[in-house]
Amino acid sequence: TFHLVSNPDLVLAVSMTKTRNEVCGYPVIVQKYKPYSNGAANQKWHYMKNIKALGAFHSTDLDKEITSANYAGICTSSVIKEENIDQPGYYYLSPDGKRKTMLCLACGQSMRTEKGLKKLLPGVTFLCVSGSKTQKPSLRGPFKVINVAE
């Protein structure tokens, strides 16, 4: 990851919101650093010293899949099944304040105003509750018709 010297919170990244340009590929931008193990593959680079070039998306397959799911608005549990991973997301507390329910970016963004969601801090590993077979949340994830666990 290449951080800006003048502001280390900003990094070099591949734009995931612009469409591909046939001549140049995807635009390279500066964006806020995402300190997650998964979901920030567009900020990871490989410097190829022999040809003096940078290769984008130098990361694990899981990181690339989570990054793609986040930008496509797809629940990450459809990618990781039943594994807890470090990824960006949101949480809300149960009415009694004793249980924390965690959601991936897509599911959290689809219901952000409903439950007063808060952003999860980096380093918290979780499986989105929308895809959980054991917990049955009162939400349907980012989809209007199907439940992610189904």
From TrEMBL:
<protein>
    <submittedName>
        <fullName>Doublecortin domain-containing protein 1</fullName>
    </submittedName>
</protein>
<dbReference type="InterPro" id="IPR043188">
    <property type="entry name" value="DCDC1"/>
</dbReference>
